[in-house]
Structures are given as C-alpha cells and as structure tokens.
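ugh ok fine here u go
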Amino acid sequence: MCKSMEIITFDHQVYQDLANKIERIADYVFKKESTYAEEPEMWLTSEELADLLKISTRTIQRMRKERMIPYSMMRNKCLYRFSDIEECIAQRVVSCNPQTLDEFRKGYWLTHKSFSR
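structure:
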C-alpha cells in the first residue's frame, strides 16, 4: 500500500518570491505576538508622580502650567503616562534616579492589580 508522491517543480524566481512572502508573514506574526506581550500603560496621579520624583504636588502643578510635562485630564483629575515621564527624565526635563523608576514600576504593578497581566 504505497502512496505515490507527486513532485512539483518551481522556477527559481517563483520559489524566491514564495519564500519572501512566507518570511514577511512570519515577521508580521512575530511582531503582533510581541505587541501583546508589552505591559499596559501605567497612569500616575499627581500624588504618585510627586512621590516618585520626590517633589511636591505644587511643583507638579507648576510643571504642568509651564508645559514641562505632558498630562491628560480624566474626570477632572490630572493623569500622567509613565512612559512620558520616563522620556522627560531621559531628556533631563525632570530629574530622577533610574533605580527609583524601576522600584516604582515594580511596586505599581503590585498595588494596581486591576491592571496586571
């Protein structure tokens, strides 16, 4: 009970085109998978940000007014994206100890269980 095998031949260029398409599909799939693996965005209140940066909430308010830090308003409350604050720190608009950032990030996910993965 031997099944016969069918041999299919491709032109070299057709084979290369097919291989390139498969590689692009694989790249797309891997990129999509890594997108879902990212942590959700952290949003900080003025109090959390002041605590992180070791400054007062009044200083945070002044920085907002002077447009030094980006923020969003939600239900009459100022919120700050952690990634925006990291960028401000990297650009030296705001000063902070990087070790403090890492500790804050770890603690944030422990205390904000509703957002955890």
